[in-house]
Amino acid sequence: METDHRSCLLFNVGLMPYLDALSWQRSLLTERIHHPSLQDVLILLEHPPVYTLGQGSNPEFLKFDRENTKFDVQTVERGGEVTYHCPGQVVGYPILNLRHYRQDLHWYLRQLEEVLIQVLALYGLSGDRLPGLTGVWLQGRKVAAIGIKVSRWITMHGFALNVCPDLSGFEHIIPCGIADHPVGSLAEWIPGITPQEVRVHIARCFAQVFGVELVQE
């Protein structure tokens, strides 16, 4: 790991359609594959309601007919099973060149978990990891999902932290394929919490965990 702090561009945007954000990520990734010296990026945003399935995910985890539904459903190149995004959930997309950190995907996943665990600690909450699973749990309820894609050691996709979303959307799926751990949100522990305040904490903890200097765009 380099001792000097790399700069990382921070894009703190509002509500963005999922496919727009996906196209943006793919563009940033392609640029960095061809020009590895470009700065890293962290995008923080929220999505309108959408279900996303990772590559090779099990369609049985959808509790509705994908071919006959009003829901927005997208299959994308990240790892992991089906998940749900909606307003009130802060989504983070780091576009990092892991050659400048550690070329180890398990390390990277644990670092993303650590960012969110540190955010929860700022609120006096103790986030947990579960052996063999990826994500962050609070008292047995999953509050953060993580799914990544890495091409030539450059990352895309990322994490989703349930701050104060309408959790009813999760009732139509088996989130991440895990039937025995319910989904939760921070608002259940901290009434009145907002995505805006949590974004600030995520950015700060991300900079600390990855040893980068964030440059607000």
What's the story with the biggest beta sheet?
A: 7 strands, mixed
Shape: globular
* Share in helix: 10-25%
CATH domain class = Alpha Beta
CATH superfamily: Bira Bifunctional Protein, Domain 2
| Strand order, largest beta sheet | 7-8-9-6-2-1-10
Structural class: alpha/beta
The oligomeric status of these chains comes to single chain
Give the N-terminus to C-terminus distance in angstroms: 25 Å
CATH topology: BirA Bifunctional Protein, domain 2
Low-confidence stretches: none
**Secondary structure tally, helices:** 3
The name of the CATH architecture is 2-Layer Sandwich
Report on the structure:
There is one protein chain. The protein has one domain (6-216): 2-Layer Sandwich (BirA Bifunctional Protein, domain 2). Helix 2 crosses helix 3 (195-210). With 217 residues, the protein is of the alpha/beta class. It has three helices and ten strands.
